[in-house]
Write a structure and sequence with these properties.
The structure is a homodimer. The first copy, chain A, contains nine helices and no strands. The first copy, chain A, starts with 13 loop residues before the first helix and ends with a helix. The first copy, chain A, is 67% helix and 0% strand. The longest helix of chain A is centred in the middle third of the chain and has 23 residues. In chain A, helix 4 packs parallel to helix 7. Chain A is an all-alpha fold. The interface between A and B is large, with 36 and 37 residues. Chain A binds a DNA duplex through helix 1, helix 2 and helix 3.
Amino acid sequence: MEAATQPSQRPMRADARRNRERILAAARLAFEEGGVHAQMEDVARRAGVGVGTLYRHFPTKEALVGELVGEKFRLLLEGARDALDIEDPWEAFAGTLRRNAELMAADAVVQDALMRSEIDWTYAEGPRSELHSTFAVTVERARAAGVIRPDFTIDDVPMIMCGLCSTMADGGPGGAYDWRRHLELMLDGIRAR
Amino acid sequence: MEAATQPSQRPMRADARRNRERILAAARLAFEEGGVHAQMEDVARRAGVGVGTLYRHFPTKEALVGELVGEKFRLLLEGARDALDIEDPWEAFAGTLRRNAELMAADAVVQDALMRSEIDWTYAEGPRSELHSTFAVTVERARAAGVIRPDFTIDDVPMIMCGLCSTMADGGPGGAYDWRRHLELMLDGIRAR
DNA sequence: CACGATACGGAATCTTCCTTCCGTTTGTCA
DNA sequence: TGACAAACGGAAGGAAGATTCCGTATCGTG
């Protein structure tokens, strides 16, 4: 979330800082809608800058997408952290999955990111692994409390989110799938019986 | 599975018929591995023909992929038909999902097809809708028997398969996801309790 | 076996995007 | 305000793939 160009150096010119924000805002918008398919030129246009400027701030499309994915994962991480304060073990677990699913539903890039491997994970690796280990605590707590099936592990979570994201992103031959229902079905499969 | 070029006309030259088969075989192979990403030139090379010949038989990549998707859906349809002969309503339902999931796992194009909307469904529409209505019978039977949750409908099935396919196709940052497990979790969520 | 009609091969063309380059503009500092 | 580095804009350059074109080779028939 800070300068991507220089690790230190003088503070970055005012217009540059402003443009960087504009670009990120435009990218959020463009990628929310079009997923990875959104084009660099489109992002530039929305930001009101030339492509050259866009590339001055983010050396490749991957870097730009990576920044957004990282941003999203930081939000997911927040969700996982908040889960630690929720008393009820099932609520902590299921509630967080629901909340974070909503976050994922909000934009298409990250859905694409979670599904296609075409994205350079290095940009979001930090938040991703931290999310993993943070939510692991909640999973363990739920299991210890006996509210989820005993064979469930934190490693099942990414898979579930992957499946879920695909139902958000797509929406078969008809209209759109009801991904919230998909999640509820899955939660019922995970809950101890 | 018959001539795509002419609705009637004279019988198609011997070498042409042979090449058509070769192309389909090569395409099956190439697309099984690479999904929609497999390239037309690659298909042609594997078939031992030039791209020109490939295009003589299938006017676009979409047409070729469509043919394969249709082929796969015909297999899925068979699965759904066989389900009608299975006594136990739960076995008929769950067993068919398992069997057809295996079929889907066998090649990547159709997974892509089920997920991304980038594919022209007209080519597989027939088998697809027939599959839908055929399996609806088994779903209804399972519900009537009280072995699946009462709010489950046939329309939930494509969504589930979509989610499932994404876990086959991808396999997150680590290796590959265990999609069979994904299916079992989901089945547990669907089964009546 | 000779002659069209068909089919073939694959280089060339077209498209779609991402990325680079460089002449111009703008912010900053003295 | 003048000088200079930093930043800008957007036309041009590439790369990857799908698709077309057309001269050549092959099949099927009289």
